[in-house]
Amino acid sequence: MTDATVLEAPVPDTDDGPPPRKRDAERTRKAIMAAALKEFSQAGFAGARIERIVKAAKCNIRMLYHYFGDKKGLYLAVLEAAYVDLRAREAELKIDFDQPLDGFLELQRFTFDYFEKHPKFEGLLRNENLMHGKFAAQSRVVTETAFPLRRTIERLIDSGQTQGLFGPDLDPVQIYVTIAAMSRFHLANGYSLSATLDTDMTTAEWRKARLTHALALLEGYLTAGSRRASGPAAGR
């Protein structure tokens, strides 16, 4: 059976009746997106099957192609929507740029929590990287939605260095990669690491300790070499 196989009865031609109501059309589109996110996160782009997506979405395959064009169009829409959701929730954080260390620690807490609560996004990213970021590299949405995040990090660095709280030569890209890595690595590799180190990394207690560890590492890196850390009060 191929991706083009129709599993359900065809949708009637528009000549046979009025077009679907806008509300129903949006509901169908959302159902397809939700089913596709699950399928792509579990099976990757190559392994995903359109038949399974339309069955889970309870829609006709023609509707999928109507909204998204083809499998590539659907995958890109799912990928972009996942990034938009992450960036939109980041933008809701109440960052006080006069308290830059607190701002960075809040960003770490948010990112850590987001990946834990959105395993389908983690699976989507894992599979996208297996394809060397093929679709992410094609998307202006993926790149442009990250601009506010980068600006936030740059402003936090500037504030922290101006106040003497942070050390010199902090790179915003390096910092975010570190934040993301400390939020994702134990999820992407948790089963193998749990077996290797004889430690259950899926428990709430272990993950709480992991977040505490991540926050301490981030704070230590940001403040290393700062004026306050190296001043007369540092040894008190």
Q: What is the secondary structure topology, with strand pairs?
A:
Elements: H1 22-47, H2 50-57, H3 61-68, H4 71-91, H5 100-117, H6 119-130, H7 140-144, H8 147-162, H9 172-188, H10 190-197, H11 204-223, H12 227-230
Helix pairs in contact: 1-2, 1-4, 1-6, 3-4, 5-8, 5-9, 5-11, 8-9, 9-11
Query: What is the CATH domain class of the largest domain?
Result: Mainly Alpha
Q: How many angstroms does the end-to-end distance come to?
A: 72 Å
Mean pLDDT: 89
Main sheet, how many strands, which sense, barrel?
none
What is the CATH topology classification name of the largest domain? Tetracycline Repressor, domain 2
Keywords:
2 domains; 0% strand; 69% helix; Arc Repressor Mutant, subunit A; 236 residues; mainly alpha; globular
In brief, what are we looking at here?
By secondary structure, the protein is mostly helical. Helix content is 69%, strand content 0%. Mean pLDDT is 89; it is low at 1-16 and 232-236.
Can you offer a commentary on this structure?
This protein is an all-alpha fold. It folds into two domains: 14-69, Homeodomain-like (Arc Repressor Mutant, subunit A); 80-229, Orthogonal Bundle (Tetracycline Repressor, domain 2), CATH 1.10.357. The protein has helices at 22-47, 50-57, 61-68, 71-91, 100-117, 119-130, 140-144, 147-162, 172-188, 190-197, 204-223, 227-230. α5 runs parallel beside α9 (172-188) and α9 (172-188) packs antiparallel against α11. The longest helix has 26 residues, at 22-47. The protein starts with 21 loop residues before the first helix and ends in a 6-residue tail after the last helix. The model is unreliable at 1-16 and 232-236 (pLDDT under 50).
